[in-house]
Amino acid sequence: MRAQVCIIGGGPSGLLLSQLLHLKGVDTIVLERQSREYVLGRIRAGVLEHGFADLMREAQCGERMDREGEIHHGFFIAHDGKLDRVDLARHSGGNSVVVYGQTEVTRDLYAARDRMGGKVVHNAEDVTPHQVDSDAPYVTYRAGDDVVRIDCDFVIGADGFHGVSRKSIPKGVLREYERVYPFGWLGVLSRTKPVSPELIYCKHDRGFALCSLRSQVLSRYYLQVPLTDRVEDWPDHAFWAELKRRLPDAVAAMLVTGPSIEKSIAPLRSFVAEPMRYGRLFLAGDAAHIVPPTGARGLNSAASDIYYLYHALIDHYERGDDSGLDAYSGKALARVWKAQRFSWQLTMMLHRFPDHSDYENRLQATELEYLFSSDKALGSLAENYVGLPF
Ligand code: FAD
Ligand code: DHB
Questions:
Q1: Residues 270 and 292: beta-carbon distance below 8 Å
Q2: Ligand nearest to the Cα of 110, by number
Q3: pLDDT, tens digit (0-9, with 9 covering 90-100), for 149-188
Q4: Which pLDDT tens digit goes with each residue over 38-90?
Q5: DSSP character string of 139-206
C-alpha cells in the first residue's frame, strides 16, 4: 500500500492533520492502535484557543463547535475564600477561548474523515516506522495474522506520549527534558448543572481543585490527589465532599452533585523531546511534549504543531519548497517551550506542594496577590491562556 503521508495515531493531532491535508489533495493514512469507541471514551481537554478553533474551521470541522461550544471571555481564580476574575477579553485585547470537549473535537474529525472517504485504520497492532532517515520510509502494522506495509514520503508521529514514534528515534539524536509532579488530577464528569458559568481554578490548603464544564448541563470537576490514590479510593460522595471543602463557601453552597459518568486520575508531567524531526519522521502533539493540564495548553500546543506541519507539507507538495519542513522542529519547539513555561508557572502557583517550606508557601501566596494587583501580570496570564500567535 502507498500513501503520501502516513500518520501514526488517530487522536486529535493525527486526525486534524489528515483532514487538512486531504482538503489540499494530499493522500494520507492514519494508523490508530485503539478502537474508535476507546478513543472517544477518553475524557480530556475542554478549553480550546481561538487559533485551534480557526484550524477546525479551516478543516471544515467547525460547524458543531461553533453551534454548541461556548465562548468564554474570562475565568475565576478562588483563593483564601475569595473569587477573583481574570477578564480575558479585557487583558488580551478582546480575545476569548472556546469551551468544547476534546471528545467532541475528535468525534467531529472522525465524522469528517468518514464523509470524505479518509483512510483511518483502527486496532492497528505493532505499528513500526522503518528507514525514516532515508528517502524511502515505510511503516508496517499487523492486522490479525497479516503484516501490512505502507510506503510513504513522510511519517508523522502523532501517537501521544506512550506512542512508538518518538521511541524509534536513536537515543543519541533525541534529548528529553522532564519534570514529574508529586500529584495527579482526579477528574469527574457528571450530568449536572455547572456550579459556575465560567471556569473556577481553586487554590486551597487541602489541594487544588478545578470547576469546568462541557455545557450548561454537563460538568467536569478535578481534584489534586496524591499519586498513590486510585479511582476506587474516591466513591462519588467522597469526591463531592472534598470538592466542597476546597471551594469558597458561597460556591460550595451552589454545587449540584450527581452520579459520575466518568472518573479517572491523570498524573501531572512536563516533558519535551528535541528535535521534533528525524529524517522523514515528524513528531507532533503529545508524542513530543506534555504539559500539566493546569494551563489548558496540551491540545492547543498540539494544534500549533499541526498548523506548522500542515503548511510545511503543503509548501513541499505544491511548490517543492522544503524550507517549512526544515524549520519545523525549531519553530514548533519555540512555541512549545512557551506553553511549558506557562503551564509550569500556573501549576506552581495553584497547587499544594507537600514538601514546600513556609517560605515557599508565602511566596506562592504572594504570586496571586501580585497577579491581582497588576494589570501587566493579568495581561501576561491572559495572553498566554488565550494562546500565543502561531
Ligand atoms: P493523543 O490524544 O494521546 O492521541 C494519540 C493517539 O495515538 C491515541 O489515540 C493513541 O491510542 C494512539 N497511539 C498510541 N500509541 C500508538 C501506536 N503505537 N500505534 C498507533 N497508535 C497509537 N489540553 C488542552 O489544550 N486543554 C485542556 O483543557 C486540557 N485538559 C486536559 C485534561 C486532562 C485530564 C488531560 C489528561 C489532558 C488535558 N489536555 C488539555 C491535554 C490534551 O488532552 C492532549 O494534549 C491531547 O490529547 C494531545 O493530542 P494528541 O493527538 O497529540 O495525542
Ligand atoms: C479542563 C481541563 C484543564 O486542564 C483546564 O485547564 C481547563 C479545563 C477541562 O477538562 O474542562
A1: yes
A2: 1
A3: 999 999 999 999 999 999 999 999 999 999 999 999 999 9
A4: 999 988 889 999 999 999 999 999 999 999 999 999 999 999 999 999 999 99
A5: EEEEETTEEEEEE-SEEEE-S-TT-STGGGS-TTT-EEEEEEEEEEEEEEEESS--SSSS-EEE--TT
Q: Rounded distance, CA 151 to CA 4, Å? A: 8
Nearest to 172 by CA among 325, 286, 278: 278
Ligand 1, residues at Cβ distance < 6 Å: 8-14, 31-34, 39, 44-47, 102, 124, 127, 158-160, 162-164, 185, 187, 266, 285-286, 293, 296-300, 302
> How far away, in angstroms, is 302 Cα from ligand 1 center?
9
The answer to whether the CB of 220 is under 6 A from ligand 2 is yes
Given the CA of residue 300, which atom of ligand 1 is nearest to it? Answer: 25
CA-based end-to-end distance of the chain: 34
Residue indicated by cell numbers 499544594 = 352
Q: How far is CA 74 from CA 99, 250, 363, in A?
A: 11, 19, 25
Closest atom, ligand 2, to C-alpha of 99: 11
